[in-house]
Amino acid sequence: MAARGFDGVAVVAPVTVPYARYSEHGPQWFLGSALAGLLRASGLRKEDVDGLAAASFTLAPDTVVALTEYLGISPRFIEHLPMGGASGVVALRRAARAVQAGDAEIVACIAGDASRKGGFADLVSNFSHFSRECVHPYGAGGPNTVFAMITRHYMDRFGATREDFGRICIAQRHNAGAFEGALLRAPLTMEQYLAARPVAEPLHLYDCVMPCAGGEGFLVMPEDRARSLGLPYAVIRASGERHNAFFEDPVPERGGWAAYRDALYEAAGCGPEDMDLVEVYDDYPVIVMMQLEDLGFCAKGEAPAFVRRTPLTYDGGGLPLNTCGGQLSAGQAGAAGGFIGLVEALRQLLVPGLKHAVPGARRALVSGYGMVNYDRCLCTAAAILEKGGPGG
Amino acid sequence: MAEAQIILPRCQDCGAVQYPPREVCRRCLGASIAPAEVDARGELLSWTALHVSHEPALRDHLPWRIGLVKLGDGVVLYAHLCMAEPRAGAPVSLHTGRDLHGRDVFVAVEPGGLERARTALRPLIEFS
Fold first, then answer.
1. Could you tell me the residue ranges of all domains in chain A?
2. Residue range A132-156: mean pLDDT, rounded
3. Cα distances (angstroms) measured from residue B75 to each of B26, B68, B94
């Protein structure tokens, strides 16, 4: 049975809480600041928020439950999102269903994480039971090792070169140059990319995201409410998610997107060629390639050729990709890294006068990928957003 | 112990090898899992050389190679890698060693490569 559509749901108010490499603030500061930003952007009062969906790693042992008390709100719908890089699109999906069902009217979707010195090592050393028992003992703290394996496999299998991955990183850095919120904005040349120090071969420094603190947020509400508030909004043309997909593949070369790509475009009534911009999860460039393939921008194994011939910059006339620089240039603010693409897509669709605007952007594809449990990420989600309302 | 065997958890009901270890079978959800000797010969799927490690004992030995190995049963394991020229698809066999923390860890070597690994990995990993 096909899932119902997302009729009558509006997505509004993209908010980013400025990123910082290190911060003395706790996660609640970033989550609370994201909520405050949503209220400022929408003109709503805190009391109007009757739904809260939140993602954060460093909030542990607390969850969204504790956050309601911390922030002094009394929602009738809450959702904790432990899906990391897929948490933004999943938040959107949960919030949209709650709004459609009448379980909530105004759902604040927020993500935020702290970054204290040494905090990242603690986080990754205890990320999951499987990784703690079966990966960490090999000296492999964190996802670099996992994605080194996936990247080398992809290179062996499809002939991708370091230069191909570099093209993605360099284009995203170009985008970050026009987005003041990004932490890494100095242009990156291919020479610099190739000469970077190795981290976990074949991954080198610029293939890896820089952990940081920050927050992201957006609101989900009924379309008529957004209209009556006079807020520019986006609608959800289609969306899908899949977890632990293709677990029989010994080394992943595809993700869950491939399982619902066709249904996604069918529900949206459009195809990859109709997207004005694409925001894909970019913990490592190989995963960007995998999403370009699995979401239909090119065939499996052809992403290296695709990135050779297609400009990925916001102003390059090709396929604008990760237009604020993505995590590779903006930084990875923990679980907010699962929101950055969605919030940036909303910004492109709804906020006029961006320095890094994709001219005339009306439709965006957002895709998430999250949670290394053992040897791959398990969560995938994607959504097609379109500018809504008059002139939408 | 026969050179080509290692001990891994296996489902008593359907026989599926469990890795990472589980208390419930990944295939049939059977709840009786027990250690079993399984064929330690496998295929190198991918590998990396770490230039950064959280493990202080490895920091003097970087770059440090680790491999991703598939056994005949289909399970995929991380292992320390001791191999002259690693390449995907190469046959490897897994051995169990003990690291400085007293943990059992897997080491992947090329066929017949255990003696070389004993010398090369000492004193970080000891084999019984």
1. 9-118+212-228, 139-210+233-387
2. 94
3. 11, 10, 12
How close does chain A come to B1, measured CA to CA in Å?
23
Q: How far is CA A178 from CA A181, A184, A314, A344, B109, in A?
A: 9, 11, 9, 13, 49
Q: Averaged over A16-36, what is the pLDDT? A: 98
Q: Which residue of A has its CA nearest to B81?
A: A138
In contact, A229 and A105? CB cutoff 8 Å: no
- Cβ distance A246 to A252 under 8 Å? yes
pLDDT at residue A267 greater than cutoff 60: yes
Q: Does position A125 have pLDDT exceeding 80, yes or no?
A: no
Yes or no: is domain B40-126 CATH 3.30.1180? no
- Strands B125-126 vs B91-99: parallel, antiparallel or unpaired: antiparallel
Across A66-70, A132-136, A242-246, B63-67, least confident range: A132-136
Q: Return the residue of B nearest to A152 by Cα.
A: B46
Mean pLDDT of the A312-334 span: 98
Rounded to an integer, what distance in angstroms lies between the CA atom of residue B7 and that of residue B17?
A: 10
Residue A122: pLDDT band by 50, 70, 90 thresholds?
Answer: confident
Instruction: Measure CB to CB from residue B51 to each of A199, A251, A374 and give the nearest one.
Output: A199
The whole-model pTM stands at 0.97
Helices (H), chain A: 27-42, 64-71, 87-101, 119-125, 129-134, 143-158, 162-177, 190-195, 223-228, 257-268, 285-294, 303-309, 326-330, 340-350
∠ at Cα A86 (A362, B48), nearest 5°? 115
Q: What is the 3-state secondary structure (H, E, C) of A233-292?
A: CEEEEEEEEEECCCCCCCCCCCCCHHHHHHHHHHHHCCCHHHCCEEECCCCCHHHHHHHH
CATH 3.40.47.10 for domain A9-118+212-228: yes
> With respect to CATH, is domain A139-210+233-387 assigned 3.40.47.10?
yes
Cβ contacts of A135 on chain B, cutoff 8 Å: 78
Say what the pLDDT of residue A3 is. 85
8 Å CB contact of B50 and A202 = no
ipTM for this prediction: 0.96
Q: A11-25 in b/e burial notation, b at 16+ Cβ within 10 A? A: bbbbbbbebbeebeb
